[in-house]
Design a protein that fits this description.
Blueprint: H1 19-26, H2 29-36, H3 77-83, H4 87-95, E1 103-104, E2 107-108, H5 109-116, H6 123-135, H7 150-157, H8 160-176, E3 179-181, E4 187-189, H9 207-213, H10 217-224, H11 232-237, H12 246-253, H13 256-265, H14 280-287, H15 293-301, E5 323-326, H16 353-359, E6 375-378, H17 386-390, H18 395-406, E7 416-417, E8 423-424, H19 428-447, E9 453-456, H20 488-499, E10 508-512, H21 519-526, E11 531-539, E12 542-550, E13 563-570, E14 591-592, H22 593-607, H23 609-625, E15 638-643, E16 646-651, E17 672-678, E18 682-683, H24 685-703, E19 707-712, E20 726-727, H25 731-748, E21 753-757, H26 770-783, H27 792-842, H28 855-863, H29 904-916
Parallel strand pairs: 5-6, 5-9, 9-21, 10-13, 10-19, 13-17, 18-20, 19-21
Antiparallel strand pairs: 1-2, 3-4, 7-8, 11-12, 14-17, 15-16
Length: 924
């Protein structure tokens, strides 16, 4: 596979603004020195001496480039040199004033150098680069925008030598801070600084937590043996925000050597429980780490007391087939901007660099040491045959794409367009065939057992491509291809149902977590049931509507019972008030076709008694199958399912949160389709998680698929530029969801998951970019050893725990408000007493400061009566922990007590007047 090395630029046309960046990228030391050489003092272009050049724009200082200029990727030349492992370029730039504090999208240079060291090609670069940066003022205690220090990243990747350099630098830094000079010029002890090992990131993890979770025994040993700072026991006992200590995380990782090191340092950790009451041994057992369980159980049974080092267990470790990465080289030939891309230009968001930051050796995040033993790579090109494409798409559409691509010159600098959003080139058609072919090959791999799961690093993406290409809706009647050509996941699912039907592949599930609605996949899924397509037309002589029967089954007439599709996306206006401009593609309102179909059936039953009898019979049949919908039109039924871990009650949307409330929805007569439209703009991470945990995953388990396809789009990230600030998830959220999907696959379909790259465009910073790290989190959750099966009881516990936390937060708010008001009323009572005494002396009429209802009524009125019930169905549940004060709505369940209205402004004014008049002490 060939990658272009660097940005394209011709020497005689080189933009001085980015000359340093280009030289740093290629490690051109002579060019760097030439550009940074300071000229002799001379008169400036404004007739002033060089002494006043500070008045000129930064890029014109010294008549040369600015060493701290940022390019369009938010990188300074120093960042570029680090990302490309150019140590001498780093040295030259630092010696010439490059700022070590400059960040690339929230990542400091020191953190970046550590992360680059996770590539085998740059393994010898990281430690000296770290030392260079520290010598030039970089502080090892600095954090990135995730709250992590450089040591966090070294620990997560197991870079022991780099970690040693960081710890040594931290020791030197701390010693320099022990004494500071005060304002009086006298040295005095500085405030205590925590050691580098004590720093926690925003999830509450220390470096030791990350090393244990990622199975890096040598790193765990290094961190436990550090002489300074807290004891090993206190480090191991430290819990993150999920309530897990270091041993809990090691048990989830399943590495026996790591577990033994932790137990030897602090045996009592074996008896510590999680919030759900599970010990480390129980976590390991649930995860399927069979060789770790006896080690942990032996220590737990001993009560966590120090014993001899446990012998190596003989039980076999839970072995999982390596995750397969399919990366056909033809996908790099889909050019959406003239190639090579020149630094300073603005290519469209969907461009070839999206694959570069994932799969390029020495640069792509999936090539780092984190995945060295977990991934198997296959980069052979396999174009999908036309028969596989035409199971999903119409020939007229396919032929159109082929013809348009053939009409473009076979020159990487030549680019055409299908629409304003979607650029193509001569080789785009073959790239699209290769992308679809990768997915069908992935099906072969998981069905035959050669791989447990597969990630397809492909482009062009596909989830907006319907049977005839563009899919329109009421909010966007014209539509757009949305960067997509062939629907890769739909082609793969249809292939699985047809080609592997004799291998037991009958039921397929397609999931989509891209921030943009998977409208194309939804249209392809709906098209597996017969329907009539209607097209309006106008002629000089009149108007009319043509109807065409459409039907494209993936296997047989019963496809509607064997296909499941679910999509969670941002749904709403691009900005408040712009109700006619919705986030692309304008569809994806919350709905469930199963629930809507039951509502339609009920309406028919009300109209015709005879039909009602037929419907009743049909519902009884569904009840025998355990699939009866509720009468409310939402799929919130509680179904008993028998599984190998015992009988479980699977609750689907138990709090009726994800119900249809308007908007365009798919046809109900086809396969089951679930859409959840997340409102915005604004972060809705908790709602996004609940949509999967409480609605989609339970429905998926009840569907019981034979294989799961995932449209993996990463543009819902809070840093992505084209999501209009909708959803706002982070890497940890993608990892959580992927882990949940893997658990469902373990339970239902022998772990068969095929993930296909869709969106995600925040590639600035390459290996430290939001896009690269999100994909890495997703693939990590697919690749790590994990035999855990999805359990409805876990979801129920989390749901109840969240409700408890919200209730406790509300109770604290109410108590604080009541205490504040009580103190205020005590002052009022004191003022009243003083007023009464004054009235007795002067004979003036007493004016009551508190209404007749007394103090209790004032407090209750101040708090708004009884606390309102928390509405789980509200889309604003994320804010439930800090609800807005307001009048409670009368829901008919109880009557509100009407109370006197208190004019607090007038009350306060009265108190102030009396205080000035000496009538009594005012409020304290």
């Amino acid at each position: 596979m060939e990658f272009y090395n660097g940005y394209g630029v011709e020497e005689d046309e080189e933009d001085l603004k980015y000359a340093l960046h280009n030289a740093a990228e290629g490690g051109d030391v002579e060019r760097l020195q030439s550009l940074l050489k300071k000229p002799e003092p001379k008169t400036s272009i404004l007739g002033a001496s060089s002494d006043v050049q500070f008045m000129l724009p930064p890029s014109m200082h010294h008549n040369g480039p600015n060493v701290n200029e940022k390019d369009d990727d938010m990188c300074t030349p120093l960042h570029v040199a680090i990302l490309n492992g150019q140590l001498e370029a780093v040295r030259i730039l630092l010696d010439n004033g490059a700022r070590v504090t400059a960040k690339c999208d929230g990542c400091p240079a020191l953190h970046m150098a550590v992360c680059v060291g996770s590539h085998a090609e740059h393994a010898e670069f990281a430690a000296p680069a770290v030392q260079l940066l520290v010598n030039h003022g970089a502080v090892v205690l600095d954090r990135d925008d995730g709250g992590r220090t450089p040591l966090h990243w070294a620990a997560a990747s197991g870079l022991v030598d780099v970690a040693k350099s960081l710890l040594d630098a931290a020791t030197v830094f701390s010693s320099q801070q022990e004494m500071v000079v005060g304002e009086d010029g006298v040295p005095k002890p500085a405030e205590h600084l925590p050691t580098l090992q004590e720093f926690q990131d925003k999830q509450g993890n220390t470096a030791l937590h990350l090393a244990a979770r990622n199975r890096h025994a040598a790193m765990v040993q290094l961190l436990l043996c550090q002489g300074e700072g807290p004891s090993p026991a206190s480090c191991i006992k430290q819990r993150n925000k999920s309530g897990l200590n270091v041993l809990h995380l090691a048990a989830l990782g399943g590495d026996v050597e790591t577990i033994k090191l932790i137990l030897n340092a602090f045996p009592a950790a074996a008896v510590a429980s999680t919030r759900q009451g599970r010990t480390a041994a129980e976590l390991a057992a649930k995860r399927g780490h069979l060789d770790a369980v006896p080690v942990l159980q032996q220590q737990q049974q001993n009560g966590g007391k120090t014993t001899e080092k446990p012998s190596t267990p003989t039980a076999g470790h839970h072995k999982s087939k390596h995750t397969l990465i399919l990366a056909p080289p033809e996908c790099l030939n889909h050019h959406t901007a003239p190639w090579p891309i020149v630094r300073g230009e603005s290519p469209p968001p969907e461009n070839v660099n999206r694959l570069t930051v994932l799969i390029k050796p020495g640069q792509g995040i999936l090539r780092t040491c984190d995945f060295e033993d977990a991934l198997r790579w296959d980069e052979r090109p396999r174009r999908a045959p036309m028969g596989d494409i035409l199971r999903v798409h119409n020939w007229a559409y396919v032929r159109k794409i082929q013809a348009v691509c053939q009409g473009i010159d076979d020159d990487p600098s030549e680019v055409g367009h299908l629409d304003p959003d979607t650029a193509i080139s001569h080789r785009t058609f073959s790239a699209a065939l290769a992308a679809a072919g990768a997915v069908t090959h992935a099906v072969d791999e998981v069905v035959t057992g050669r791989a447990r799961n597969v990630f397809c690093a492909v482009r062009p993406p596909g989830h907006h491509a319907g049977p005839s290409g563009v899919v329109t809706c009421a909010k966007d009647p014209n539509g757009s291809h949305g960067f997509c050509l062939f629907n890769n996941v739909a082609i793969g699912a249809a292939y699985a149902m047809t080609v592997h039907r004799h291998a037991g592949i009958k039921r397929v599930a397609l999931l989509d977590f891209d921030v943009h609605h998977g409208n194309g996949t939804e249209a392809c899924v709906a098209n597996t049931a017969p329907s009539l397509a209607k097209y309006a037309f106008t002629t000089p002589y009149g108007e009319g509507v043509q109807q065409f029967p459409v039907y494209r089954p993936w296997h047989d007439i019963d496809d509607k019972d064997n296909i499941f599709f679910a999509s969670v996306q941002g749904y709403g206006p691009k900005a408040p008030g712009y109700m006619d401009a919705y986030v692309y593609p304008g569809s994806g309102a919350t709905c469930d076709t199963k629930g809507m179909l039951s509502r339609e059936v009920e309406e028919l039953a009300d109209e015709d008694d005879e039909d009602a009898m037929l419907v009743e019979g049909a519902v009884k049949i569904d009840e025998l199958d355990g699939n009866a919908p509720t009468g409310t039109g939402v799929s919130s039924q509680q179904q008993q399912q028998h599984h190998n871990n015992g009988e479980q009650q699977i609750e689907e949307d138990p709090d009726h949160e994800f119900v249809y409330s308007g908007g365009e929805m798919p046809r109900t007569e086809g396969p089951r389709i679930i859409d959840v439209g997340i409102p915005g703009p604004g972060s809705r991470v908790a709602l996004w998680r609940r949509s999967w945990r409480d609605k989609i995953l339970p429905a998926l388990v009840k569907f019981d698929p034979d294989i799961i396809f995932v449209s993996a789009g990463f543009d819902a990230h809070k840093k992505d530029d084209i999501n209009f600030a909708y959803i706002g998830v982070q890497e940890k959220d993608y990892e959580w969801l992927t882990d949940q999907i893997v658990q469902v696959a373990n339970r239902c379909c022998q772990g068969r998951v095929i993930s296909v790259l869709e969106g995600g465009y925040k590639i600035q910073g390459q290996v430290v970019s939001a896009f690269a790290r999100s994909v890495a989190a997703h693939v990590k959750a697919m690749a790590e050893p994990n035999g855990q099966e999805w359990d409805a009881r876990d979801a129920k516990w989390e749901r109840e725990h969240e409700k408890q936390l919200r209730a406790e937060a509300e109770a604290k708010r109410q108590a604080a408000a009541a205490a504040a008001m009580a103190a205020r009323l005590a002052a009022v009572a004191e003022a009243e007493a003083a007023q009464a005494a004054n009235a007795l002396e002067t004979g003036e009429e007493e004016v009551p400061l508190v209404p007749a209802g007394g103090v209790e009524d004032v407090v209750a009125d101040f708090l708004g009566g009884s606390p309102p019930p928390i509405s789980i169905a509200s889309p604003n549940l994320d804010a439930a922990a800090a609800p807005i004060d307001g009048e409670e709505e009368d829901d008919g369940s109880r009557r509100k007590r009407r109370r006197s209205t208190v004019d607090y402004v007038a009350l306060n004014k009265k108190l102030e007047e009396e205080q000035k008049a000496g009538a009594g002490p005012g409020p304290q």
